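F.,

This is the one I mentioned.
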């Protein structure tokens, strides 16, 4: 797809949303919540609603406004709802893998939506196959569904707890029954999940920006290892097993999350600005201006400019109307792809020594084209500064990472990468400087993509079963 040519970035896999609010239009609120989370997944979208008698579901491939028409929304009635937006890897982009998943078990109908990736999904799937389970999709989320159904002779809370004992890896879940909504976060808290209040109802979402969008108030984050039940009687919390210490994904702050979100107590925009300040402390570069690669590099570029005293300028204009396209681009189109999204402003940049700030560098293809574009309009010097350490290892917890051999920093020095992208200088934020922005020196964050230290052991045979 053309977007894969334009965006040489790591990809978040999905976003989840849930609401229990009798008397409110839960489907419409879920629609708006998913719209706010669209950046977390653009392949498919789905909404399931519960009315006390059963669960209605609509899901399809496409962006949120493409999937849900007025007629569809009229049929999604009830007092509770869950929703999902999904980004998928190549080969698994099909409607059978779209979520939420809805199924019938011994205690009635149940809907489930999942953000994360199970590291032992392959082994669990084979065990369930051997015991007669039937699968309709290739997602590891369906493994969770089968485990809950397997243990459903007891209460749903007990079934979820037993499933949590079996599954390993990253998962933030929203689960809908006829009379309740559940929010579940894995013991390490890899993927974000927050809790909010609106009127007489409760809301859960991957990011607080979705709560803001529907006018809900952020109450707190769902804790690692916590099960939250939301129903007509209010909130009930059950703290299950928790890891010795959390391992929140550091890349949520670097790139994935919207800048107006607050995740695990930190406002994303403020963290990114502090990353820029830290970069300025680590690297004093003589230049005329600081420009961001919009949008994820903007806050860090402002922070660098504030700390260094070098003027901040908008030097790259972003085209926000590219949308999705499924054409197979020609080589000529590949060469022009970056210009479709970002265009340098000659009048601002020509003849200047420029510091260009971006969030990360994965394969280096887009970065090289950006530097080349600046050279072509007469920029005197290009210093490329990144608000993350080098990405040297793949992620197994719900991020679509290139194969290790495709990660340019896994086999090249900083000087070698600088030559590849063609910059006059290339500077990465140090891991120590990044973690010092957080309390406890960032000990509660997963940095496996930077140092290869995985909080949960990765089975050698597991690879990437799926990335939901």
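My design for it:
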């Amino acid at each position: 797809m053309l977007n894969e040519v334009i965006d040489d970035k790591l990809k978040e896999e999905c976003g989840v949303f849930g609401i229990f609010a009798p008397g409110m239009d839960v489907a419409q609120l879920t629609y708006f919540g998913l719209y706010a989370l669209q950046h977390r997944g653009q392949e498919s979208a789905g909404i399931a609603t519960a009315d006390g008698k059963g669960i209605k579901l609509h899901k399809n491939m496409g962006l949120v406004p493409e999937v849900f028409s007025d007629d569809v929304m009229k049929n999604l009635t009830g007092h509770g709802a869950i929703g999902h937006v999904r980004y998928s890897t190549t080969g698994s982009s099909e409607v059978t893998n779209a979520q939420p998943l809805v199924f019938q078990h011994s205690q009635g109908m149940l809907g489930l939506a999942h953000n994360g990736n199970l590291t032992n999904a392959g082994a669990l799937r084979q065990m369930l196959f051997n015991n007669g389970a039937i699968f309709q999709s290739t997602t590891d989320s369906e493994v969770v569904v089968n485990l809950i159904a397997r243990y459903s002779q007891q209460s749903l809370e007990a079934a979820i707890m037993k499933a949590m004992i079996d599954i390993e890896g990253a998962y933030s879940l929203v689960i809908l029954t006829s009379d309740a909504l559940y929010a579940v976060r894995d013991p390490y808290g890899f993927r974000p999940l927050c809790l909010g209040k609106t009127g007489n109802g409760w809301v859960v979402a991957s990011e607080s920006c979705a709560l803001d969008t529907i006018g809900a108030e952020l109450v707190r984050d769902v804790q690692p290892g916590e099960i939250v039940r939301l129903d007509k009687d209010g909130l009930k919390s059950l703290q299950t097993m928790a890891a010795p210490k959390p391992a929140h994904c550091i890349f949520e702050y670097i790139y994935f999350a919207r800048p107006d979100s607050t995740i695990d107590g930190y406002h994303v925009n403020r963290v990114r600005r502090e990353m820029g300040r830290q970069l300025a402390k680590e690297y004093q570069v003589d230049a005329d201006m600081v420009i961001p690669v919009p949008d994820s590099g903007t806050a860090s570029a402002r922070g660098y400019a504030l700390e260094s005293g070098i003027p901040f300028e908008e030097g790259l204009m972003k085209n926000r109307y590219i949308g999705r396209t499924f054409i197979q681009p020609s080589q000529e189109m590949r060469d022009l792809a970056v210009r479709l999204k970002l265009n340098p402003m000659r009048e601002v940049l020509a003849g200047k020594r420029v510091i260009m700030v971006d969030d990360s560098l994965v394969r280096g293809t887009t970065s090289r084209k950006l530097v080349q574009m600046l050279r072509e309009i007469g920029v005197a010097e290009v210093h490329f500064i990144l608000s993350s350490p080098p990405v040297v290892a793949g992620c197994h917890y719900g991020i679509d990472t290139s194969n290790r051999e495709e990660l340019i920093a896994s086999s090249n020095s900083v000087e070698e990468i600088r030559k590849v992208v063609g910059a006059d200088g290339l500077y990465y934020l140090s891991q120590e400087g990044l973690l010092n922005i957080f309390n406890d020196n960032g000990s509660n964050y997963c940095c496996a993509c930077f140092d290869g230290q995985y909080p949960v052991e990765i089975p050698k045979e597991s690879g990437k079963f799926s990335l939901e």
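The longest strand covers residues 108-118.

Talk soon.
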